[in-house]
Amino acid sequence: MKALGTHIVCELSGCDRSTLSDIDGVRSTLMQAAREAKATIMEVAFHRFQPQGVSGVVVLAESHISIHTWPESGYAAMDFYTCGDHTNPRLAAEYAAKAFGADSVQTTEVKRGVESAKGQYTHVVLERDEPSVGRLSA
Amino acid sequence: MKALGTHIVCELSGCDRSTLSDIDGVRSTLMQAAREAKATIMEVAFHRFQPQGVSGVVVLAESHISIHTWPESGYAAMDFYTCGDHTNPRLAAEYAAKAFGADSVQTTEVKRGVESAKGQYTHVVLERDEPSVGRLSA
């Protein structure tokens, strides 16, 4: 299947709560995650909520990485979306999960920009190749 | 099903090509789409590629809206992700599809932040309630 992009939809649970509140740390982690995926950072936008929580996005030459955190629950919702054969968004997801100390991770892969007919683009949700909530390997 | 957020994954085809190249117009459309969803804009980050194409994200108090455009193909990949009962990301998607002149739209809805066990969060991909590629109603 030829797709313009690969989008990893990701829920992280059991994360380190203080890490999820630290906007500078979250921003640094996402920027390093982009580098792990071999992607190129174009723009960065983050916001720290009161009393807690961080939302932010790294716009890439190859799409984006985003995060929304709920420190009080140890939970973060992330998206790792890259285009091009030179990038691997799974490497970004693995890096971020470890950096945030997640004890479980759920991902779904969506192939974006699949040309189903001339000029008509769809996406395809792939079956997960892992348990719905799987413990990270050490 | 109780979820923290609703994420609409969206492919737009047959869009107006010049509109997809205009960074100012794309930014304005995404900001208005956020307002249509009753969301609150916190940060905005957009980038114009050479020779063409725009990527950008509006970070919301309630998650984010993103776009990546391929003007040469009339194609845009968009995500509309909001949290809270006061927002409706489908209204944002409908607004953007019309603004970009899409002649067909594919969406998949993902419920994000579904607590499956204490402190364990998952997402759930919902069956589409529409054809895989459906023409927008007038």
Q: What does this protein look like?
A:
2 copies of one chain form a homodimer. Chain A has helices spanning 17-21, 23-36, 89-99, and strands at residues 3-13, 41-48, 54-60, 63-70, 75-83, 104-117, 120-125. Chain A is α+β, with helices and mostly antiparallel strands and 138 residues long. Chain A has a 7-stranded antiparallel β-sheet with strand order 2-3-4-5-1-6-7.
The strand line-up of the biggest sheet of chain A is: 2-3-4-5-1-6-7
Helical run tally of chain A: 3
Biggest sheet of chain A: strands, sense, closure?
7 strands, antiparallel
SS elements, strand count of chain A = 7
Q: What is the gyration radius of chain A calculated from CA atoms?
A: 15 Å
End-to-end C-alpha gap of chain A: 32 Å
In short:
The structure is a homodimer of 138-residue chains. Chain A has three helices and seven strands. The first copy, chain A, has 138 residues and is of the alpha+beta class.
